Amino acid sequence: MSKNKIKEQGYFDTSFSLSLEDRMTSLRAVSIAVIFYIIGYAAKLTVLFSDALNAKIPNIYIRIPTSLFTALALSVGLLIVSVNENNKKTPYLIALMDAIALFLLFDVLNSQGTDIITTSFLSVFMAFVGYNLINVFVTKRKQEFNEAKQTLNNLEQEVSNKKQTLNNTEQELDNVKQALSTLEQEKTEVEQQKAIIEQDLKERTCPHCDTTFTSKKALNPHIDKCKMNPKNIKN
Ligand SMILES: [Zn+2]
């Protein structure tokens, strides 16, 4: 199995081995919870708008869509503001308005007895959960963004390292080529020297008895007198 295949398998293994805890706290899970929260927020506002517009728009077919779309626009707008707003007070204001919306919806001021406690608790609790949910969503999003950025940085660093390694290898290859070329040049020179020496030796050696003399001049008188010279061999 090739290295890449092992890597791919490793990658898939990691992605499939996400634990239930990881899935429950993933950005996707938090996003789904936020969407539900926004739908609920929009529903609450729709009822409030519809109540407030009751006298002005008696026709239910106009009043309900008007209230619904206004509520949706406000709820989604609220989410966008809470995610992008850098002011730390904004989430508290949003939670406070959420609580007030629920107070009005439950008509807490006109409730009596234990109803006041139940509706007040529900209003405050839901606003608290909503506030924290949006906070978690923002934190998770930033965290995932930072992780992705970190991964990108690591990959860039890896690419840079590989490029450096490639450059080093190319440099080494050039050096080896250079050394090989020098060696080949030296070999040619040695062969040339060897040929010169052999030629010189041959010129100083008697072709009949293979005796080597100190110079060509010393060899010449010998050749005629050489006992192995066919001219000197008596039949
Ligand atoms: Zn000889």
CA(first)-CA(last) distance: 83 Å
Could you spell the SSE succession in H and E letters? HHHHHHH
Q: What characteristic shape results from the CA principal axes?
A: rod-shaped
The number of E-state strands comes to: 0
Q: How would you classify the helix and strand content by structural class? A: mainly alpha
DSSP strand content = under 5%
Report on the biggest sheet: none
Give me the Rg, rounded. 48 Å
Which small-molecule species are bound to the chains here? zinc ion
How many separate helices? 7
The proportion of residues forming helix, as a percent range, comes to over 70%
Low-pLDDT runs: 1-13
Averaged pLDDT:
85
Search tags:
235 residues, mainly alpha, 79% helix, disordered N terminus, binds zinc ion
Layout of helices and strands:
Elements: H1 3-16, H2 20-24, H3 27-52, H4 60-84, H5 90-105, H6 114-203, H7 216-225
Helix pairs in contact: 3-4, 3-5, 3-6, 4-6, 5-6
Bound molecules: zinc ion (ZN).
How do you describe this structure in short?
The protein is an all-alpha fold.
Can you walk me through this structure?
The chain is mostly helical and 235 residues long. The chain has a domain at 204-235. Helices cover 79% and strands 0% of the residues. It contains 7 helices and no strands. The chain has helices at residues 3-16, 20-24, 27-52, 60-84, 90-105, 114-203, 216-225. The longest helix has 90 residues, at 114-203. The two termini are 83 Å apart. It binds zinc ion. Residues 206, 208-209, 211, 222, 226, 228 line the site of zinc ion.
